[in-house]
Design goal:
Elements: H1 11-16, H2 27-44, H3 50-56, H4 61-70, H5 111-118, H6 120-127, H7 140-155, H8 171-184, H9 206-209, E1 217-220, E2 223-224, E3 230-234, E4 240-244, E5 248-255, E6 260-268, H10 274-283, E7 321-324, H11 333-343, E8 346-349, H12 359-371, E9 380-381, E10 391-392, H13 405-420, H14 432-440, H15 452-459, E11 461-467, E12 469-471, E13 476-482, E14 485-488, H16 490-493, E15 502-508, E16 514-518, E17 524-530, H17 541-552, H18 565-576, H19 581-593
Parallel strand pairs: 1-7, 7-8
Antiparallel strand pairs: 1-5, 2-5, 3-4, 5-6, 9-10, 11-15, 12-13, 13-14, 14-17, 15-16, 16-17
Length: 627
């Protein structure tokens, strides 16, 4: 048989070989890579001899022969090498001789593989190295690996063997070996994930698995609105003044495939916290209903709404993965616990200053800012260079149009609902809601929990251990303490056997007036209520912490003798709003939750106070105790 004759493969075998996409090859190597693929196919199918194919494609005949020999053989992943042998930096070695476990002396072909075969410990280090190796300067972790290998060989006194007898101690050879091995062991597209990724490439990151279908991925991020909001503060004498708030924050939750906004939250203050993040996620689990609009000439567009209001399984769907950035509110254990307990899925936290990892929500924030928020009174475009001034966009002054946050929420709800019904150029001129309904007709799997309403309420709760305290000897009834407040109930008054035990408490972070105690995770014990003056008005965890901070300051808020802590807190903020920026921000926050909260009078008029006198007889105070 002539040396030019090679055992040919069948056409089905050649067609089944995996071929790395050409766009994954560097542009300077792409033409040579395609030439190798064409030559390999021609020789394996018998369309050309080895010498003719090598000459026409300007390839090395020996290298082409090695490629033809190796292409049908199985790689470490159980699939034929196929066209992977055509990758420019691939290795093409003869497998006719097995290594006998001896250390190589000279830098001959495959000396690095022989050294690793003789040193199992070093081989384990090298094969376990998974740091990316881009072109250019070698990463630090690779340099650490090479230093570790050299140190191990020196400890075994192998200075006369390869690679210690080389000037670079085998650094380049080790780098080339790792790259070649990664090509050989690259996963095939049909080995695990099939051909669902379209381009034939296997996913390299967890986030790549959750893409392509609706509700596979969601993105959540907080955005500081570019408007200097002014708040109208009632004065103690009946007048009112305007004071600027520190910042306004908009926190949207977006479904990436349809660009639909599934939930959002508006917050005022220096920053937002983990409670605002869980509230945003909980909003995506609640069924949306149109509001009763108060603002004149404000209305929802035809078909406007949120994904949670869609019929069928779409209304109960939620993203399988939620992407966040590295904001401190996102890293809170309370967010993680609530997400794992009530939302389910994967919570992925991105790196700082990398908006490309969350492109959809970042672009949404930019477009919403330019198309809506900056048109509000005081809207401006921030400076882009150091030393420049911001550019005013809005034609209205914020001082002439002080805001009311509950009305601003109403406006944003209309903007978001109308956005979801507006044709989007990235969706083929379909609106996000239309896109969701169109894709829902496909044969896809949507996560459809049957208890979405319960999950929404559970997202705003936390479970904490609380110790029951009390003393039968001193007459202190059994109770629990949480967030600086005592909680008790008539059912707990006689349970002296629980004193000293630790129970679980489910806390609604948006209403701390009551807690639910549990003996175990599934056995409830009963509800307990906060003691006065915390049991009158609904208040959240943030409000209670702020009230406690003001009460600990010298000359601050005093809760002695007040009937409602929240009402006294609002009165205190109004009295200090002229001199304290924190009081202005907190007053805006509490007014957002309670737009119609009454305030107690700061002065008592004797003329308006009814006189009380005995109807008959004398009145004596001799028996009264001095207070």
């Amino acid at each position: 048989m002539s040396r030019e004759r090679i055992a040919l493969c069948t056409k089905d075998e050649v067609e089944s070989w995996y071929q790395p996409p050409a766009d994954t090859i560097a542009s300077k190597h792409r033409a040579r890579y395609l030439a190798k693929c064409q030559a390999l196919r021609a020789v394996c199918l018998g369309e050309a001899s080895l010498s003719v194919a090598a000459r026409e494609m300007n390839l090395c005949r020996k290298r082409l022969r090695s490629m033809v020999d190796r292409a049908p053989k199985l790689a470490l992943d159980g699939q034929p090498f196929g066209y992977r042998v055509c990758v420019p930096w691939g290795s093409y070695y003869r497998e006719d001789s097995a290594n006998d476990g001896e250390m190589p002396v000279h830098p001959e072909p495959h000396a690095m593989a022989a050294m690793l075969a003789a040193q199992p410990q070093i081989k384990e280090w090298v094969h376990g190295f998974n740091t990316p190796l881009p072109t250019g300067r070698m990463p630090r972790k690779f340099r650490d690996l090479h230093s570790r290998v050299v140190k191990e060989l020196k400890a075994k006194d192998l200075h006369d063997y390869y690679p210690l007898n080389q000037p670079d101690k085998g650094r380049r050879a080790l780098l080339r070996y790792i790259r070649n091995r990664r090509i050989e062991t690259a996963p095939m597209p049909n080995s695990v994930f099939g051909d669902s990724f379209g381009d034939g490439s296997a996913p390299s990151k967890l986030a790549d698995i959750f893409r392509g279908e609706i509700f596979d991925r969601g993105e959540l991020d907080g955005h500081r609105i570019d408007i200097p909001g002014e708040l109208q503060v009632p004065g103690p004498n009946g007048g009112s003044v305007t004071r600027a708030v520190t910042a306004l924050w908009w926190i949207p939750d977006v479904e990436t495939e349809s660009r639909a906004i599934v939930s959002w939250t508006l917050r005022v203050g220096r920053n937002y916290n983990n409670q605002d993040v869980t509230q945003t996620m909980a909003g995506s689990l609640e069924k949306w209903t149109p509001r009763d609009l108060i603002i004149p000439d404000l209305h929802y567009a035809p078909g406007a709404g949120m994904p949670s209001a869609l019929p069928g399984p779409l209304g109960f769907s939620r993203p399988l993965m939620v992407a966040l950035d590295n904001h401190k509110g996102h890293h809170s254990p309370k967010v993680e616990d609530a997400f794992c307990r009530a939302h389910d899925g994967i919570l992925t936290l991105g790196r700082p200053h990398q908006p490309r990892s969350r492109p959809v929500v970042e672009q949404l924030n930019s477009r919403t800012e330019k198309g809506a928020f900056r048109l509000l009174p005081g809207g401006f475009e921030p400076a882009t260079k150091l030393g420049e001034d911001k550019v005013r966009v809005s034609e209205f002054s914020p001082k002439d149009h002080p805001m009311q946050l509950h009305l601003l929420e109403e406006l944003i709800d209309v903007i978001v609902a109308n956005y979801n019904a507006t044709p989007h150029p990235a969706l083929g001129d379909l609106s996000p809601l239309q896109f969701l309904q169109q894709r829902a007709n496909r044969d896809i799997c949507l996560y459809q929990p049957s208890d979405a309403a319960l999950c929404a309420a559970d997202m705003n709760t936390i479970i904490v251990p609380l110790k029951v305290v009390g003393s039968k000897k001193s007459g202190t009834l059994p109770h629990v303490n949480y967030a600086y407040v005592r909680y008790r109930s008539p059912e707990l008054d006689s349970r002296w056997e629980l004193v000293g035990q630790t129970l679980l408490a489910r806390v609604n972070r948006h209403d701390l007036r009551s807690l639910v105690l549990y003996r175990t995770a599934t056995q409830p014990l009963g509800a307990v209520r906060a003691s006065a003056p915390w049991d009158k008005t609904r208040h959240d965890e943030t409000t209670r912490n702020l009230i406690h901070q003001w009460s600990k300051q010298e000359g601050g808020l005093s809760l002695k003798g007040v009937e409602c802590a929240v009402t006294a807190y609002v009165t205190f903020l109004r009295a200090n709003a002229r001199t304290s920026q924190q009081a202005v921000d907190q007053l805006a926050y509490i007014q957002q939750q309670h737009p119609k909260l009454p305030s107690t009078a700061t002065r008592h008029s004797l003329m308006s106070t009814p006189m009380r006198a005995p109807t008959r007889g004398w009145m004596s105070m001799d028996d009264m105790r001095d207070s």
